[in-house]
Amino acid sequence: MTSPAAAIRCPLATCGRENSLPVALCSGCGADLRAFAFASRLNDYYFNRALSQARGGNLASAKRQLRICLALQPRDEEAQLLLGRVQWALGEKKSAVAQWRRLLATSVDESITQQATSCLSVSLVVPAKGTGGRRKGGRK
Fold first, then answer.
1. Which domain holds residue 37?
2. How many domains does the chain have?
3. At 103, which CATH number?
4. pLDDT band at residue 125 using 50, 70 and 90 as cut-offs
5. pLDDT tens digits for 65-110?
6. For a tag site, which of 35, 84, 95, 112 has the least CB within 10 Å?
7. What is the pLDDT of residues 25-37, one digit of tens each?
8. CA geometry: angle at 35 spanning 50 and 86, to 5°?
């Protein structure tokens, strides 16, 4: 994970400055950012666990790790993308598609956008479970 952990935005409404990691104090207002830096490292820990679990085929555990990861850092686009992939692999097609669409609506990272678009294009080709691939009128 590189992009979500590269900087911490100061949470104070009067500041909001981006601070490069590692950082203890906001360069704009001097606010203590150590807890936010710790949360970022914790987020990385859960993301890496999720990635390892997903690669090992333990998708339910990967999904739980990603939920924790996103609770710590809701804007983590890599975690959002991976969550959609895990949901897809678990057969949760509608949730996966919704996840990727939300990501496309908010992402500013071109690489993430391309990957989410790719995932969505595959989802349009593969019919969701239970649809049988049928069109209205009973034709295939």
1. 7-125
2. 1
3. 1.25.40.10
4. low
5. 999 999 988 889 999 999 999 999 999 999 999 999 999 999 989 9
6. 35
7. 999 999 999 988 8
8. 15
